[in-house]
Amino acid sequence: MTGTVRDRLAKGRPTFSFEFFPPKTDEGSRQLWQAIRQLEPLRPSFVSVTYGAGGSTRDRTVAITERIATETTLLPMAHLTAVNHSVVELRHLVGRLAAAGVRNVLALRGDPPGNPNGDWVRHPEGLEFTEDLVRLVKSHGHYCVGVAAFPEKHPRSPDLDADTRFFVRKCQAGADFAITQMFFRADDYLRMRDRVSALGCDVPIIAGIMPITNVRGIARSAELSGAAFPEDLAARLYAVEHDPAEVRRVGVEHATALSERLLAEGVPGLHFYTLNRSTATREVWAALGLGSRAAARIPA
After folding, report:
1. Long-range contacts of 154-162 (CB under 8 A, 24+ apart)
2. CA distances from 260 to 14, 182, 230, 232 (A)
3. How many CB atoms lie within 10 A of CB 23?
4. 77 SS3 class
5. Pairing between strand 46-49 and 205-209?
6. What's phi and psi for 50, nearest 5 deg?
7. Which of 19, 66, 131, 283 is catalytic?
8. CA gap 80, 35 in Å, rounded
9. H helices within the chain, ranges in order?
10. Spatial separation of the C-alpha atoms in residues 92 and 102, rounded to whole Å
11. pLDDT, tens digit, for every residue of 83-132?
């Protein structure tokens, strides 16, 4: 499918999208493509493919994005990080994506390899900040570029005000939209949106939603990302952690309620972190009644 995420957002209706990650095994690959095929009929606005820490999945990320672009009806977006890459390597990757018809990129600085909380070290021939990566991608022509947003601030930011200024700088560099890190409280997103707006920035910020299917896994992910894991939600999940179906039920219920609140508050889009599985995402989709919304969308 052709078009850009910017085009989808400009239609004035909430976008709905899914995120996948490059698998490491043949079984993981089978599971990924099963999820893609099961979610494709829902007609999402776009899908994204993540980039491993330190650029560890570079070739797999590009290959999967290329395959989605050529073998499905989905609009793909590739994640691209600056960590461990020279400017020459980054330009090559952007050109490879363009050759496959991929014009949507999520520009990220990226986590240090081996230790996401370790010191970030710039490649000697690379880029220092995400805003530099945004400019690099934009310099290649007609690209739609997204960036990350952090409702509870990036773990490396000293405070919320500094984090908001960092975000606005990425937008001023040319970002067309943003997608948030996962979060569990609607008010965190709404306060972030207000802070950004107060600085005169109106770049659309899509909300990242994680339907919980594994308690300990999500607790660890929340810790690494700096997202607060609400005590009441954690208590409900730990009470049923030995029953996977109940964990998913609680997770889907929470993700649905969060999404409903955000849609009521005018969020420009919802981006579901699928973990390469489709069941929980499809259950949230059904609970929100998104099938009728998807059918009403006209592809660009």
Report:
1. 154/226, 155/117, 155/224, 155/225, 155/226, 156/120, 160/195, 161/195
2. 12, 16, 18, 19
3. 17
4. strand
5. unpaired
6. -75, 170
7. 19
8. 22
9. 5-10, 26-39, 58-71, 87-99, 130-138, 160-172, 186-198, 215-225, 231-238, 244-264, 279-288, 290-296
10. 14
11. 888 999 999 999 988 888 899 999 998 776 655 566 666 777 879 889 99
* Residue 35 confidence (pLDDT): 95
Q: Which amino acid is at 285?
A: W
Q: Find tokens 């609400």 and name the residue.
A: 230
Asked if 241 is an active-site residue, the reply is no
DSSP count for the chain of H helices, then E strands: 12, 8
pLDDT tier at 294, thresholds 50, 70, 90: very low
Q: Give the Cα separation of 133 and 116 in Å (integer).
A: 19
DSSP run (H or E) holding 149: strand 144-149
Residue whose structure tokens are 């085009």: 7
Domains, the chain, in order of start with CATH, read 5-296 (3.20.20.220)
Which DSSP symbol is given to 205?
A: E
| Separation CA 39–CA 62 (nearest Å) | 20
CA distance 145 to 50: 14
Q: Is the dihedral of CA 60, 66, 70, 76 positive or negative?
A: positive
Which two tokens mark 121? 């070290």
- 146-155 pLDDT, tens digit per residue, is 999 999 988 8
| Residue among 109, 74, 76, 75 nearest 90 (CA) | 109
Orientation of helix 160-172 relative to helix 186-198, angle to 10°: 60
Reply yes or no on whether the pLDDT at 297 is more than 60.
no
Taking the model in full, what pTM does it have?
0.92
Helix, strand, coil in percent for the chain, rounding step 5: 50, 15, 40
Question: In whole angstroms, what is the distance from residue 270 CA to residue 209 CA?
Answer: 7
Structure-token pair, residue 107: 């520009």
